[in-house]
Amino acid sequence: MLKPLDQSGVWRFRELLPPLAEQRVITLREGNTPLYHLQRCASLTGIDSLYAKHQGMNPTGSFKDTGMTVAATAAHATGFHWVACASTGNTSASMAAYAARGNMRSLVLIPEGKISWGKLSQSLDYGALTCQLRTDFDGCVRILNDLVRQKPVYLLNSVNPYRIEGQKTAAVELLEQLEWQVPDHIIVPGGNLGNSSAIGKALLEMHQLKLISRLPKVSIVQAQGANPFYRSVHEFGGAKLEPMTADTMATAIRIGNPASWKKALRVLQSTGGEVEQVTELEIAEAKAEIGADGIGCEPASAVTLAGLKKLSQRGFVKPGETVILILTGHLLKDPDFTIKFHRGDLFEGTLQEREAVRTKQLQRAPVVLDATLAAVISALEAAEKIP
Ligand code: F0G
């Protein structure tokens, strides 16, 4: 049996779950996500062998699903009726879906006004009890940790080890897709740092099992306004992490006190990866560039390309190397961000407003025309002059 939590809030296991019959596995057929070559981004960065492993192509549109199938199954198999998470939107969407599939109730704690509508709408539709708390993600986590000590509610945040086990599949699939040729770099966005920990764990285990002969360097990228891990590594040599009040338009990674920072640090150290930070403008540009490749992703995923540019500028990533960006969420998760960017008002009223002029050539604002053939033809001719 799994014992929920001890006094310190740490998960304890009395014994592993017994083997489960296949029909007791809660699944939405997650995984097996595509690996895309990013043609335009490759020529832009000068790194020919540039690929995206798109975890946003999972059933609820984010990487959370591969972990959620395992953790929701564990919750169900151990007899829980309620599952709960604090979230910046994707965990809650995923948890709500898997709970519904397993006939469990789900409780979502999200920061009010700080998650995208796409994600919020998912947890509503999948039937979660959705509480928008007047705090940030870190405040939601604090309340959730207290709640699970008092109520028989199964915690589904990424400190849940079953989630980490499930999220390892991205790395295993990736190596399989590369026919076990080890890439030089894997670049992952960093928020609560569960995903980078899971990917690192999978790589280390595959290395131990001799499925791969060497380790790729796993690098983690944070938004500059939500960079506690970057600061931990660069200012304190990883000796401590100072929690901060986080702020970024990439709301998925608006996290000031990441739970899994020590695990992520071990991944950096054992694979020889780097940690980088990127500005809001760099995120917006990179997102449009991934979009222009016909792939698209949500803002938090785009930190990977923005980070790659910086890592390559300082020579850490070299032109002949193979680089994999882990795209964590689907483009349609946050259409508000995308529309504002293309209309040119994403940075309106912000400190970056003037600098944002440089993103103009990436913008493709919709054009409103009279319903005439002549108007469409002249729009077409005007567009032909733009590369
Ligand atoms: N990218 C996306 C799209 C995310 O939703 C998250 C985290 C991350 C990256 C960062 O991953 O936390 O494992 O380092 N989203 C969580 C949530 C926190 O609640 O949906 P991480």
Please characterize this protein's 3D structure:
This protein is of the alpha/beta class. The chain has helices spanning 39-45, 64-77, 90-101, 117-125, 137-150, 161-167, 169-177, 194-208, 228-236, 261-271, 280-292, 299-313, 335-343, 373-384; strands at residues 2-3, 12-13, 35-37, 50-54, 82-86, 105-111, 129-133, 153-155, 185-189, 217-223, 275-278, 323-327. It has a six-stranded mixed β-sheet with strand order 3-4-12-9-10-11, sandwiched between helices. It has a four-stranded parallel β-sheet with strand order 7-6-5-8, sandwiched between helices. Strand 1 (2-3) and strand 2 (12-13) form a beta hairpin. Helix 6 packs across helix 8. The longest helix has 15 residues, at 194-208. The chain binds ligand F0G. Residues 62, 87-91, 158, 189-196, 252-253, 298, 300-301, 328-329 line the site of ligand F0G.
Low-confidence stretches: 1-15
Mean pLDDT: 94
What is the helical fraction, as a range of percent? Answer: 40-55%
The molecules bound to the chains, other than polymers, are:
ligand F0G
Count of discrete alpha- or pi-helical segments spanning 4 or more residues: 14
Element order, helices and strands? EEEHEHEHEHEHEHHEHEHHEHHEHH
Query: What summary fits the major beta sheet?
Result: 6 strands, mixed
Content-based structural category: alpha/beta
Distance between the termini: 61 Å
Our estimate of the beta-strand percent is: 5-15%
**Main β-sheet, spatial strand arrangement:** 3-4-12-9-10-11
Outline: globular
Q: Using DSSP, what is the number of strands? A: 12
User: Nearest-angstrom radius of gyration?
Assistant: 21 Å
